[in-house]
Each structure stands twice: as C-alpha cells, then as structure tokens.
Amino acid sequence: MKRHLAEGTVIFFSVFKWFVIAACIGIVVGFSTSLFLTLLELFSGKTAETPFSFVLLPFALVLTVFIIKRLAPDAEGHGTEKVIEAIHQRNGRIKLAVVPVKLTATLFTLVFGGSAGKEGPCAQIGAGLASFFADLFKFSDENRRKLVICGISAGFAAVFGTPIAGAIFAIEVLYIGKILYDVMLPSFVAGIISFQTAKYLGMNYNYFELNFDGAASHNFIFIVVAAGLFFGIVSALLIEILKAGKTVSDGMRTNIYLKAFFIGGAMVALSLIFGRSFFGLGLGSIREGLSGEKILWYAFAAKMLFTSMTLNFGGSGGIVTPIFFIGVTAGSLFADIFGLDRSTFAGIGMVALLAGSTNTPIASSIMAVELFGAKISPWAALACVISFLITGHRSVYPSQIIGFVKSSSIEIDTDREVDGAVPGVNFSDDSLLKKIVAFFSKKDNR
C-alpha cells in the first residue's frame, strides 16, 4: 500500500510540474506565433496592393541568404527539419538568435512570393524559445528535449488551429514508426494552450465541413485505397524533387548570393508562363480546391517545382503549407480523372500527402477530423496509412530516425536517419513476391 501511495504521489507531482511548464511554453509560443502570423498578414496585404511586387523576389532571396548566413545559419531551410536535427543531434539545443532571424527571413521569403509554408518558422521559433527556457532554468538534456518537442506542438497547433493533431505531430514526426509517450502530456498541454492563446489574441482559423456522402457507395473503400496509392506516389515524387533541388543547388559552384538571385529571377520568369498562383502560401488555391472548384491539372507538379526552388536556393519557410497545396490539387485531379467529388478528395489528398511525405499518419488522420469533421475521418485515415506505407523510407525531413521497417520483405537499418538509408530487399519469407520481382527483373534485362 505504501509503495502504491508513494508511486501515486510522485506521478501526481510530475503531472502537475509538466502541466505548468508546458502551459508556460504554450502561452509564449501562442503569443510569438500570433505575432508572426499578424506581421505576415500585414505585409502580405501591403505587397498585394502593390503591382509587380513579386519581381522583387530575387532581391528578397538574396537578403534572406545574407541575414541567415551572417546571423543564424540554423535558420536556413524549412524550420521543422532543423528542430528535428537539433533534438537528435544536440539534445534540443537551439540558439536564441534563430527566433528573430527565422521570423524576419521567412517574412521576406513569403511576402515577396517565395513558395514556402508558415508552420516551420513557428515550430522553430517555438522550439528556440523552449530551448532558451530550458537553459534559463538549468533543465537536463532529457527535459530540454521534451520542452523543444512542446515547442513544435505549440507552433503547429497555433498555426493551423489543430491542437490535437499538432500535439501528435510533434511526438510522431521525430521517428518513423515510434511515438514518444513520455512527452505526450506536455505536448498536448502546450498545443492546446498555444491554440487557445492564439485564439484569444484574435487568430482566425478555417475549417471546412465537406459535403461528404461517399459512404453510401458500396465500392467507395476501393476508390479510397486507389487514392491512397496515388497520394503515396505523389508524396514520393515531392520528396525526390526536393532532393533533386538540393543536389542541383549543392552542385552549383557559384556565389550563394548570385545563386539565390538567379533562381529568384527564374521563378519570376516561370510565373509569366504558369501564373502567380504557385507563389507564396497558396491559401487561395487551397480554399478553392476544398470548395470543389476546378483546379489546373498540373498545379501539384508546378507547386513542387516552385517549392524546391525556394527552399533549396536561399528561401526560408516551412514545408507543410506547400504539402497541403499539393495534396489538395492532386486530390482534385484524382477526382476529375475518375468523375468523383472534388472537395472530398481534395480534403483526403491534403491529409494523405501530409501523412506520406512526413511519415505522420496518426497526426494526419486526426487533422482530418479537426479540419473536416467526423464523417470523412475513417476514409481519410485509410488513405493516410496507405500513403504513409507507399512513400517508403523517405521523408521531407531527412533527419527523421527510422524506427521500424514498413515491410518485412525490406532490409534497412533502423535507428538511423532517413537521409543516407539505403533499403534492400529480403525475400526469405515471401516466395510469391520473390517470383514477381524476378519476373520483372528478367524483362528489364532483355
């Protein structure tokens, strides 16, 4: 009895401690995220009123590169990846200078048309503030990691208005196939408090009640399975295009400022062909797709190209908002090809592409409930899981750690980063699969 009482007392005080700490992180991150989103809306509105402001994108990218290189190199690229890297490699240590630098650099990128997202900066800002908080109060490395994960949760929740999905995303995104249960409580508290703080400060969020009646069709499950396969392939394509952009960028030996200016100019030139709908956040196209409006069939591919160019050649921002754009437009295309409801598959595509490209099927499935309602949730979850599996051991976050293998017929080292992992094939327990692959291998060798 005494042992149980002692155990209960320790757990009670542990829960109370982490509730208070996570709540503080949630308030701070909710406030900082609201500040960032308010500034982004303000300056984006100003440039929208100015004709041809997008032609300044080359200069904005050069300025972004200059600010990051001189003040905080860790603010480069899309923020969530840098936070994952810090958690795995530096026990969550993030320099405080990253916070103002990331905010400023992302504003320059997005306001003048760079194709990036707004969640990465908020996650990195939240994680940076959490790391500073841990240093200030002399937290251990283990507790610092927990606080930084809370920063991801709080930033994601406050940006999209999805506190539960934000909390799960933060503890699911670090490892492929593993969830950190020991951080679940503070992650949930930080996400919910950050979301409530942002709402209190006037942030508005878009939720879409999709006109969903697919369950009435007896073959709808097979359509969703096909959609999951499609979104998994699109996810893999996005990851490969981002990697190709990085390879090209690393291979260019020219000055980094000239490189940024050249790519910015190329994006401006491409806008004369494809239009400006692929610049910036692309929220208008996301809303149109979820409303069932007709979308250009190549929109998802064009957004991949613009995003890869932005993030690999000096731009600063997140990756999740472009993922939403690509998922919505790819879903709309899938619906048009098979004569289905556009808004339904735009919504499913939005979360399924997130699941596949970031390896977060649980958070993505919960996001479907928070954004689109409960009716579509079983079908969205099915598409999310299939997309997650089809994407393979890839990720838009190269610093993710592989926690499990997605098929028993694949050989790949676990407990190592996605970037650099080379999957092999093992047929010892699957003779049918071995025969199928051998058949196609013979055809290739003819």
Write the layout of secondary structure elements.
Layout: H1 2-48, H2 57-71, H3 79-90, H4 98-111, H5 119-136, H6 141-160, H7 163-172, E1 175-176, H8 184-200, H9 220-251, H10 256-274, H11 283-290, H12 299-312, H13 320-338, H14 342-358, H15 361-372, H16 377-390, E2 401-402, E3 410-411, E4 424-425, H17 431-445
Parallel strand pairs: 1-2
Antiparallel strand pairs: 3-4
Tags for this entry?
single chain, 446 residues, mainly alpha, Clc chloride channel, 3 domains, two-stranded parallel sheet, 4 strands, 2% strand
Outline of this structure?
It is built from 17 helices and four strands.
Give the CATH class of the largest domain.
Mainly Alpha
Q: Oligomeric form of this entry?
A: single chain
H and E string: HHHHHHHEHHHHHHHHHEEEH
Q: Any idea of the CATH topology of the largest domain? A: Clc chloride channel
Distance between the termini: 74 Å
Segments where pLDDT lies below 50 for 5+ residues?
none
Beta-strand percentage range = under 5%
How many separate domains?
Answer: 3
Largest sheet: 2 strands, parallel
Superfamily (CATH H level) name of the largest domain: Clc chloride channel
The overall average pLDDT, rounded, is: 87
Quickly count the helices.
Answer: 17
Class of secondary structure makeup: mainly alpha
Radius of gyration from CA coordinates: 22 Å
Overall morphology:
globular
Count of individual beta strands: 4
Textual characterization of the structure:
The protein has 446 residues and is an all-alpha fold. The protein contains 17 helices and four strands. 68% of the residues lie in helices and 2% in strands. The strands form two sheets. It has a two-stranded parallel ribbon. A two-stranded antiparallel sheet has the order 3-4. Helix 1 (2-48) crosses helix 6 (141-160) and helix 12 (299-312) runs antiparallel to helix 13 (320-338). The longest helix is centred in the first third of the chain and has 47 residues, at 2-48. The chain is globular. The model has no long low-confidence stretch (mean pLDDT 87).
